[in-house]
């Protein structure tokens, strides 16, 4: 039984790490995130309901761990700011992920790097959606379960994420759209 759990988790480590790298933009932070994801998965292994949904379950844990860490980091930065007397705290900024893949042509490499840079510029939520659907091959239903939203919401968010990526790839500066609330 333990061997099966170990093998199941090992199978997903490269994909979890790749996703974590895109979220955090820092290799050591991504490794920490994957480790905390595996720890959480092991501690809650008996609560899984569906053996076929392991991939979505692991990605959901990783994404929630990332969001929790981000929230804690913001609170910590605010506390530091308060204790420093209003000075701007200097923080470590993430680094872009280096893609060591070899492309057959310089043109393809330039295009790929351009898309990766555009993807890196997107907000975390949009980047995560595009990675889950386009790279990891999760279904809309699986992503809807991860985010705990209806499938239609996933589809509309994905559409906006693809538009934002297209605009970023074309060099447009994305301005946040305002919604009228009545």
Q: What structural category arises from helix and sheet content?
A: mainly alpha
Distance between the termini: 55 Å
Question: How many strands appear in the DSSP assignment?
Answer: 0
Number of helices: 7
Q: What is the residue-averaged pLDDT?
A: 78
**What proportion of the residues is helical, as a percent range?**
55-70%
Which parts are unreliable, with pLDDT below 50 for 5 consecutive residues or more? 82-103
The shape is globular
What Rg, in angstroms, do the CA atoms define? 18 Å
H-E order: HHHHHHH
The biggest beta sheet reads: none
* Multimerization state: single chain
Strand content: under 5%
Describe this structure in words.
The protein is mainly α and 182 residues long. The chain has helices spanning 2-24, 27-43, 54-84, 106-121, 124-135, 140-147, 151-169. The protein contains seven helices and no strands. The radius of gyration is 18 Å and the shape is globular.
Question: What characteristics describe this protein?
Answer:
182 residues; mainly alpha; 0% strand
Describe the structure concisely:
This protein is mostly helical and 182 residues long.
């Amino acid at each position: 039984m333990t061997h099966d759990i170990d093998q199941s988790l090992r199978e997903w480590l490269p994909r979890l790490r790749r996703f974590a790298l895109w979220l955090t933009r820092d290799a050591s932070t991504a490794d920490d995130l994957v480790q905390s994801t595996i720890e959480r998965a092991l501690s809650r292994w008996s609560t899984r309901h569906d053996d076929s949904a392991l991939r979505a379950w692991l990605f959901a844990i990783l994404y929630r761990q990332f969001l929790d860490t981000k929230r804690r980091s913001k609170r910590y930065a605010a506390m530091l700011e308060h204790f420093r007397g209003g000075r701007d705290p200097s923080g470590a900024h993430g680094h872009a992920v280096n893609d060591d893949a070899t492309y057959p042509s310089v043109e393809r490499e330039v295009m790929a790097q351009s898309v990766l840079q555009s993807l890196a510029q997107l907000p975390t939520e949009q980047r995560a959606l595009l990675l889950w659907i386009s790279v990891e091959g999760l279904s809309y239903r699986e992503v809807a379960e991860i985010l705990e939203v209806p499938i239609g919401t996933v589809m509309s968010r994905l559409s906006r994420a693809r538009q934002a990526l297209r605009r970023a790839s074309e060099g447009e500066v994305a301005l946040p759209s305002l919604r009228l609330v009545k």
